[in-house]
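Internal tracking record. Fields below are filled automatically when a chain is submitted to the structure queue. Please do not edit lines marked as system-generated. If the sequence contains nonstandard residues, flag them in the REMARKS field before resubmitting.
Queue: standard
Priority: normal
Entity type: single polypeptide chain
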Amino acid sequence: METVPHILPAIRSTFGLSAGACAALAAVLAAVGCSMVSNSQNAEGVRMFDQAYYQGAMQKFMQAIQSDPNNPDAYYNLARTYHQLAKLHSQPADYQQAESYYHQCLDRDPNRTDCYRALAVMLNEQGRSTDAYRLLEGWVARNPSAADPKIELARLYDEAGNQDAAKHQLIDAVTADPTNARALAALGKLREDSGETAQALANYQRSLQLNPNQPQLASRVVTLSTPQVPLVTPPGGTRVVTSPATPLR
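SYSTEM-GENERATED OUTPUT FOLLOWS
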């Protein structure tokens, strides 16, 4: 969306600005207008995507990019739409388009977590796990003090069954950012799965302190904090529950 030349005299006379200042103000106003239009088109595309109207969504995201070529949301959502079509129809061209738009999103928002995650998942779907690891390892290397890149790399390791490597990344993430609730929750999950209950509980509790809006995590804390009722097998062979550790009320 370009600045409309005929509004410049009106702006100049209204605000008493010099020609240069007037042009700068007009450019700012035009940019704001373009951004608002782009965001509206992007939001409409998201609604269409959620209704599985993918062709309509694609058109809206393309319009959003035309209105504001620097809108990373529109590139991400257009990539997501091509990715969905690729999964539905197994067309290589759709995967190629999705990959291109994911990268264009990252060009405009270099640390966008959901975009890195989606692109890594797509690369794995195509049997390109080496590329997926390279993508996230590069993100980690460029942001050594950030937690999110390490969390996403840990997630990739965990999904591949390499829990030790995943735990290493999450410990690094918590070291880099001790107040990152996501890293603490993910580390707690790995520790719970490996039988490190006390450490898992401590990680969960700290994560909840930082972000109380995690109902599933709160449920795990209750479960891990509740004394387990032992089962006893008497001589007759029937297993019975002994008295609970605390009286029932």
